[in-house]
Amino acid sequence: MRTIIGLEVHAQLLTRTKLFCSCSADYFGAPPNTHTCPVCLGMPGALPVLNEKAVEYALKAALALHCEIPQRSIFARKNYFYPDLPKGYQISQYEEPLARRGYLDLPTGKRVGIRRLHLEEDAGKLLHTDEGVSLVDFNRAGVPLIEIVSEPELNSPTEARLYLEELRRILRYLGVCSGDMEEGSFRCDANISLVAPSSGGRMGTKVEIKNMNSFRAVEEALRFEERRQQEILARGEVLLQETRLWNDKTGQTEPMRGKEESEDYRYFPDPDLVPLQIDDAWRESVRESLPELPAQKRARWAQDYKLPEYDIAVLTEERSIAEYFEAVVRLYNDPKDVSNWMMSELLRLLKESQTTEIPLPPEHFARVLQMVNAGQINRTVAKAVIEESFKTGKAPDEIVQEQGLSQISDERALAEIVTKVLAENSKAVADFKAGKEAALSFLQGQVMKATKGKADPKKTRDLLLQKLREP
Which distant-in-sequence residues (6+ apart) come within 8 Å of 214 by Cβ? Predict the structure, then answer.
């Protein structure tokens, strides 16, 4: 059986205010119901006013996904009744969306069609207490979303995960969405069905899966559902068209409700909002503002910097890291060396400090590598200098001078230290002369210890070998 998967992604836009009112859209962590007004609460007589910045961000996403953007789109009322929907309907787009017929290329090279991309407002959020009471927080109600609907062209849970990861990268590069799945700013519903060999290519019964808050959860939920449907069909039973929830604790999908169809929502044009007009000048202005996107950057780096695929994947994951890398390379033109140092030291420091902001200027990072290359400091000292500069903002030269970290390269001074170390470690000397090569590393370590890591490693090794081989 062949698996067919289509994804519906809701991405919150990083606007300061909500889609149709001036309430702050930065609701996460705020006290419940403090970011509300008559418009987003659906009070009688309150009229929506469209947020221009939200339209601009949606256009950026649509253009980055190669979508067609008609001059005219229409806002509609999507009618359904649920406690977190204050108006009893959601303002969305249906028959005439903002954009359609685009595509996204996976890192594997596969092209996946984008059926549509449209603007809509978010709903509120239900909070369920241990006492069996449900509370409603309307802070999120009215926050601008784009919904991105793929064509049913994904054929495995792994492809679905790759699609979501690449889509998230694009939106984060554009600066239009934070992409945080745990906070709910990037949410995915998945539709999955199986095509039996005897069906003539017709898709089987479609099942929708909700409540997946990580890429891992999406892949695992689809994998479970794939197996579940295969087993049901193998038994000759009928598969229900329904919406199911992913239970991360049990690792299973569970029934939620029967699957709605579009007619269940009774869409009709919103009488309070005029049609949205996108002229050529606006569209092209937004297109010119697009940054280099992840796929373009990966291809250029492979050609210009000749880096391994792994390095490129790691360093282009975040736009800020990629731009930092290129800033350092402009100052120290050894892309592979910069890549090694960034992946081993800079990314470690960012992870430990739990920050996405890089406090270490590219000039400081490049200067450390220049000092290593010139033999002014060794690699051990360089790691300490990078960390100190990261934490304090001090320039590398200042740190080296203050702490006396300059590399000891003078052969006469090194020879005296080597002689002393050999005299104090006669057993290691004997072991080396008996053929135990590991003793050399031990002795070199003792020299480094005696010099507080400042000895030139290569000269230290050469001097040790020279003296150990003396008759």
Answer: 181, 182
Residue 184 and residue 203 in one domain: yes
- Contact predicate 202/195, CB 8 Å: yes
- Residue that terminates a domain, selected from 225, 253, 285: 285
Provide the CATH number for the domain around residue 416.
Answer: 1.10.10.410
pLDDT, mean of residues 241-263? 85
Shared domain check, 240 and 141: yes
Question: Which tokens hold the place of 75?
Answer: 């806002």
Co-location of 431 and 461 in the same domain = yes
Which tokens is 173 given? 């590069």
Pairing status of strand 242-247 against strand 207-212: parallel
Same domain, 25 and 53: yes
Total residue length of the chain: 471
Question: What is the domain extent for residue 436?
Answer: 411-468
In this structure, the answer to whether residues 392 and 424 fall within a common structural domain is no
- Tens of pLDDT, residue by residue over 151-162, are 999 999 999 999
**Claim to verify: residue 277 and residue 176 sit in the same structural domain:** yes
Are residues 298 and 241 part of one domain?
A: no
Check: CB of residue 373 under 8 Å from CB of residue 340: no
- More confident call, 159 vs 265: 159
Structure tokens at 151: 């064509």
* Percent of all residues in the chain with a pLDDT value above 90, rounded to a whole number: 71
- Burial zone of 330 (CB within 10 Å; 0-12 exposed, 13-18 middle, 19+ buried): exposed
* Percent of the chain as helix, strand, coil, to the nearest 5: 45, 20, 40
pLDDT at 380: 87
Label residue 201 by pLDDT band (50, 70, 90).
low
pLDDT band at residue 47, thresholds of 50, 70 and 90?
Answer: very high
For the ranges 143-157, 174-188, 277-291, 454-468, the lowest mean pLDDT is seen at 454-468
- List, in sequence order, the alpha helices (H) in 84-156: none
The reported pLDDT for the residue numbered 458 is 75
CB atoms within 10 A of CB 52: 10
- Residue where a domain terminates, one of 366, 382, 403: 403
